[in-house]
Amino acid sequence: MKPMPSVTAFALKVAAIVGMTCNHIANVFGSELPGGAMVASYSLGGLTFPIMAYLLCEGYRHTSSVRRYAERLAVFAVVSQIPYSLLFGATGNVLITLLIGLGMLWLVDHQRQNLALCALGLLGGLAVSSFCDWGIIGPLMILLFWHFRDRPRGVALAMLVPFLGLGLPALSWAISDPVPLSLGVLGYYTVGFGLATTLMLNYNGQRGRPLKWFFYGYYPGHLLALWALAQALAL
Description:
This protein has helices at 9-29, 35-45, 48-62, 66-88, 94-110, 115-129, 137-147, 154-176, 180-201, 212-232. By secondary structure, the chain is mainly alpha-helical.
């Protein structure tokens, strides 16, 4: 059996936006989709956040300026919030979750000697993230990737916690009520997480094609397009 080809950061980002688009289509148009399409869309959606969290850690590790990195996330988080709220209500979008995670990485890396300040900052970050996409699980997953970053198979170790914590309840739901939605959620935390883990384990540390601004702009752009389509279809 041939080994899987190595994966660049560009390829990881493409996988993340494909999964994100599928997941948002399932969330917005799920009631209109055939059952199989709903399950597949949700399952691919599980690719997205683990890859985003992992690449945030990689970006933090290699950035020449954490401040500028945070500013980019903050600008696009603000831009994205309007279309996100139009689709999903008054919760913070995933770029806010990533921005909180970035701040927590900086705290862990620079304030570890001041345990009180570090703990207060981490608790504050978790409290704010509870009002955002992925809730407190998002920043915790980012911290897990950072903690296991230099260990062999560290990605798999970091993914084990959310896989068990989220996948087991999804399995219980799917067994007790095997409808397309519950099966899709199970696929999200099993198939999607599994594919994401495989891709991240094969990451070669290379950037690949430099389309940074496309990936930043795609997030608010596709949200706005999905909202416009939902309005046109009167959903």
